[in-house]
Amino acid sequence: MILTLDIGNSNIVMGIFDGGKLALVSRLHTNAISTGDEYAVTISSILGINGLSAGGFSGGIISSVVPKLTNVLRDSCRSLLKCRMLLVSSGIKTGINIQTDNPSVLGSDFVCAAAGAAAHYRLPCVIADLGTATKFSAVKKGGVFAGTSIMPGVNISLDALAAKTAQLPHIGLDGATPPLVGTNTVDSMRSGIIYGTAATVDGMIELYRRELGEETEAIATGGVASAIIPHCRQKIILDSDLILKGLYEIYKKNSHAEN
Asked: What is the pLDDT of residues 203-221, one digit of tens each?
């Protein structure tokens, strides 16, 4: 088995590949002050609940956009699983040709999503990653990463509304789909964030398609994508596991790398 870890600002997504297939996905809340032992206990518990042994792993790979947790999780997994843990960083083989101004500072989540898209979908493509931030990436034919657009994510926007206004409450995306024209505060906020974000995704994908060509594939991933993409009008493939798939592809390209 191969462990893949996507360490994001809000969640840590753990994927386990067995025989080349994604056999398990689990989400943990990102806590930058948790210790390696605490994460080891949590991961061990997840494995146990699913009938998996910590001794059954031949390797693992991590993508992290939270520097404080990168080595914490890497060392924790090494100790628990007794196997090599690769890190998506400058110098690792990805199969992606990054053509941004400074490729070395591009977030590993962008790289992994592009690697997953290049392996599983038609290029060129635009990737909409709806997580803590809402991000759009252009991947051209041949696995060329052309660049990105970044804007505040859904939950950041909701938090800002509540924090910067006197009468708007903190809300989440849970609950029934709101009417477009809300008749109470909560429904009005949820309408604005859900349909407004969906319209933004539609518009950005249309702009990216103009840039890359009419045959551009559109793929969505990220923690809140499933709440937004069903309300979009553009043809968009929803793949919540895209980054994990990309991590596994990158692992395969580096399976003989030093630990």
From this structure: 999 999 999 987 899 999 9
